[in-house]
Amino acid sequence: MEKKIADYEGILLIDKAQGCTSHDVVNDVRHILKMRAVGHAGTLDPLATGLLIILVGKATKASQYLMSVDKVYEGSFKLGEETNTQDSEGELVASLPVPALSGEDLKKQMASFLGDQYQTPPMFSAKKINGVPLYKLARKGQEIEREPRFIRISKFELLDWNSESKEAKFRIDCSKGTYVRTVCHDLGKRIGCGAHMTSLRRVKSGQLDISDAVSIEELKEMPPSAVRKALIPVSTAVPSIAF
């Protein structure tokens, strides 16, 4: 007789779909596994897809460690247009001509973002100031001063450049807390034509990889034995944490 799913614990890698929140995914997993002790490490915006780390049972103790590791994303941005959210879900606030750029020109501009630096969080973000999420102030048309925070970008690679549509695909390796849409926005500012992010997919978080993730739809169809195999022991992902 198989052990009840409610007795399980470990790290579950979910391939998050576009449009839902990270909290939506947590609620779905709670319902599927029929247990309350479920959390996540590292939020993804509704626009973003890809690797969401779900913590089951005592694995929630590993949250801080798993949130602190570097992340790898693949995505796309469009030059010549700025939005109020710095991504394609926002309202267009500026449209500017894009200078003639080759792929090599764009690579050079992207390379200037490598290394240690300070980044100012966007107004449309969940970061709280005096207990209030910035996006709530932004929706009221308010903009307040935000303290820049330290980030590191290890790689910022151009995967494809369409000079006609002014759209580019990229891959970025960055530290915890990096707003990738702000990197795209700031790149557009540096070039002088503006930009906004059009898609984002997290493919890696520390040593955890999207190739080992399952979708919520797949999880719903998995028998208990398959769920057991999918759960990564905390001791494997975070050897220093003892229970």
Automatic annotation (TrEMBL):
InterPro entries in alphabetical order: PsdUridine_synth_cat_dom_sf (IPR020103), PsdUridine_synth_N (IPR002501), tRNA_psdUridine_synth_TruB (IPR014780), TruB_C (IPR032819)
Top-level lineage group: Bacteria
Pseudouridine synthase II N-terminal domain segment(s): 30-180
Catalytic activity from the UniProt record: uridine(55) in tRNA = pseudouridine(55) in tRNA
Pfam family, one: TruB_N
Physiological role: Responsible for synthesis of pseudouridine from uracil-55 in the psi GC loop of transfer RNAs.
EC class name: isomerase
Location of the tRNA pseudouridylate synthase B C-terminal domain: 181-238
Protein name listed in UniProt: tRNA pseudouridine synthase B
Entry similarity comment: Belongs to the pseudouridine synthase TruB family. Type 1 subfamily.
Gene3D superfamilies per UniProt: Pseudouridine synthase
Assigned keywords, A-Z: Isomerase, tRNA processing
Molecular function, one GO term: tRNA pseudouridine(55) synthase activity
Enzyme Commission number(s) of this protein: 5.4.99.25
Active site: 45
